[in-house]
Specification:
rod-shaped; 5 helices; 5 strands; 5-stranded mixed beta sheet; about 240 residues; Heat Shock Protein 90
C-alpha cells in the first residue's frame, strides 16, 4: 500500500474514532436525560397521587361539614322562639321566687335565655323549697338535655320533677334528681334514698305523661325507690 493510501486510511480511522466517541457521548447524554425525565415523571405522578388523595380528603371533610351544618340548622330551627312558651317559663320561675320569699327575684327571659342553666337552677330551688317544707334534702345530680333546649321541654321536665319530688320526699331520707337525653325523649330520674315502702300510686302523673308521649316506671333498688319518667321532646 502506498503512503498516500496509508494516510487516507489513517485519516478515515481517525474520523471513525471521533465519530464513535461523539456517538458514545451523545448516547450517554441521551441516557442521562432519559433517566432525569423518568425521575421527573415519577415525581409528577407522586404529586398527582398526593393531590388526588388530598382532594378526596377535602371532599370528605366538606361533606362532613355540610352534614354538621345541616344538623345545626335543624336544631336551631327547633329552638324555641315562641314568646308564649318563654312567658310560661318566666311565670313558673316567678312562682318559685314568690314561694322562696324573693318575689322581686329577676328571672331571665327572651331569645338569649340559657334554658339548660335555668332548668338546673329551677330544679335546685324546687328541691330547696321542698327541704324547707318537709326536711328532706335534695340534690341535682345532672341536667344534660343537649342544646338547643326547648323551653317547653324544660317546663315539662321541671313539672315532672315537682310532682315526683312532692310524692316521694316525705318518706325518703334524700332525693337525687338526674335529667338526661335518650334520643327523642327527655328522661327524668328521681331517686328516693331510704325508701322502705312499696312504690306509691302515680296513676294521675302517668296519664299526664302519656299525653306527652311519655311513660313512668318505678322500681325498688336496695332501699332506694327509683322513679323514671320519659317524655317526648317538643322538637322531635
Amino acid at each position: 500500500m502506498s503512503t498516500t493510501a496509508w494516510i487516507v486510511a489513517a485519516a478515515l480511522g481517525a474520523l471513525l474514532v471521533a465519530a464513535l466517541v461523539a456517538l458514545a457521548r451523545t448516547l450517554r447524554t441521551t441516557r442521562d436525560d432519559l433517566a432525569t425525565e423518568r425521575e421527573h415523571r415519577a415525581e409528577a405522578e407522586r404529586s398527582v397521587a398526593h393531590l388526588e388523595s388530598r382532594t378526596g380528603t377535602l371532599r370528605a371533610e366538606l361533606a362532613e361539614a355540610h352534614h354538621t351544618n345541616a344538623e345545626l340548622t335543624a336544631r336551631l330551627r327547633r329552638a324555641s322562639t315562641d314568646p308564649r312558651t318563654l312567658g310560661l317559663w318566666a311565670l313558673e320561675r316567678h312562682r318559685q321566687a314568690r314561694l322562696a320569699g324573693t318575689p322581686m327575684l329577676a328571672t331571665p327571659n327572651g331569645p338569649g335565655l340559657d334554658v339548660a342553666a335555668e332548668l338546673r337552677a329551677a330544679i335546685a330551688l324546687e328541691l330547696e323549697l321542698l327541704r324547707e317544707e318537709v326536711g328532706t334534702h335534695g340534690e341535682v345530680v345532672e341536667v344534660s338535655l343537649g342544646e338547643p333546649l326547648e323551653a317547653r321541654d324544660a317546663l315539662a321536665a321541671l313539672r315532672v320533677v315537682q310532682e315526683l319530688a312532692a310524692a316521694l320526699a316525705k318518706r325518703a331520707d334524700e332525693l337525687r334528681v338526674t335529667i338526661a337525653r335518650d334520643q327523642a325523649h327527655a328522661v327524668v330520674i328521681v331517686e328516693a334514698i331510704g325508701w322502705a315502702d312499696a312504690p306509691p300510686s302515680q296513676a294521675a302523673l302517668a296519664i299526664s305523661l302519656a299525653a306527652l308521649d311519655g311513660t313512668l316506671e318505678q322500681r325498688l333498688d336496695a332501699g332506694t325507690l327509683v322513679a323514671v319518667a320519659r317524655l317526648g321532646s317538643a322538637g322531635s
